[in-house]
């Protein structure tokens, strides 16, 4: 995954496709980082809303996915 780059406001940071997305895949997510926030949205429907992770929640979530844990991430 790409490393976060902090900006003063997440609304002004640039969306980018996940490093795990393949060019041939039609389903992928876009991510943007801000100071203490991570935004995630559907690349095929960017205007339909986004998820926002605060603090270390994005790191906890992606670590949980990579580790393949069966229980949900704490404190999301």
Automatic annotation (TrEMBL):
Classification via InterPro entries: DUF397
One Pfam entry name: DUF397
Domain DUF397 residues, every copy: 14-63
Highest taxon, organism lineage: Bacteria
Protein name stated in the entry: DUF397 domain-containing protein
Organism from which the protein derives: Lentzea cavernae
């Amino acid at each position: 995954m790409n490393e976060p780059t902090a900006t003063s406001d997440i609304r002004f940071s640039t969306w980018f496709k996940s490093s795990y997305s393949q060019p041939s895949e039609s389903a992928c997510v876009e991510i943007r980082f801000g100071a203490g926030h991570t935004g995630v949205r559907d690349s095929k429907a960017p205007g339909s809303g986004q998820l926002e992770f605060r603090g270390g929640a994005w790191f906890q979530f992606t670590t949980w996915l990579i580790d393949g844990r069966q229980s949900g991430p704490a404190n999301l």
